[in-house]
Amino acid sequence: MNIRKIKKSLMADKQKLAIAAVIIVVALVLGASTNYDQQTTHNNAKITATNLNRQLQNTWSKVDTDGITNAQIAVYDKKTSKVYTYTHGSKNSYPTASIIKVFILTYKMSLGELTNDDKDLATQMIEESDNEVTTEMVTSFGGIYQFPKLFNKLRMTHSNVNQTWGLTQTTATDQLKLLNELFYNHKILSQSDSNYIANLMSHVDDNQNWGVSSGVADDTMIQLKNGWLPLDDNYQNAIVNSIGHVQDDNVDYTIAVLSNGDSTQDDGIDYVSALSQATYKALSR
């Protein structure tokens, strides 16, 4: 065999081996880099969630509780995909007051398309917080004892009906399950049906501009529903709640703030609003 051909063949084989070795090294380096980046991102997410929880707990605990007997707050932060909670007092569940109206409309829409009359009722129920039309809507689908059907679908395991719809018992974390269905998940209602409810919640009457909407930036999108119910004369021993969704360039979260046994309705409104404002400030940093 020709010696020159043998040498050329050997040199070609060496070049191929060298190229293959380089490719393997590069692949290993890139793979290691990717794994490192993924692990770093994962660890950073954990660190962020842990730090955020610590920061929120510290912030919430500093809000003045004068005149407030029991309160709960729960927040789902889309950035970290985590739920953060805080409780003042010892109560486990809370009467909903008018925040139940979002649940009622969600249940009604889960049964099928709204009629024009239904839409009129829905507008008055959410935007104006009208109690009479709420009773009419509840009656239209068979009454309060239909509520557990949606409780079960949403796994709202700590919510229970009461003979009076406004005294239905719930927790802040259960309310997040409803809100997250409307603003993120869309498993029970379609995106368009969820948007319909969100639009109503973004046009509540001006006298309901408290709670979730407190202290946010001017360009922030807010969907909210408030509930308030003084159990004694002179607006004392009050239930004051606020639920909703807050989104702008810096934040995207759902929030539920519940309080019960407030000395006065104004005390409850001030406290719920202060918690909401503190939450926005912490999450927008």
UniProtKB/TrEMBL annotation:
Record Gene3D superfamilies: DD-peptidase/beta-lactamase superfamily
Taxonomic superkingdom: Bacteria
Lineage, uppermost ranks: Bacteria, Bacillati, Bacillota, Bacilli, Lactobacillales
Protein's UniProt name: Serine hydrolase
InterPro entries with a match to the protein in the record: Beta-lactam/transpept-like, Beta-lactam_cat, Beta-lactam_class-A
Keyword Hydrolase attached: yes
Keyword Hydrolase: yes
Keywords, alphabetical: Hydrolase
Domain Beta-lactamase class A catalytic: 119-258
GO molecular function, one term: hydrolase activity
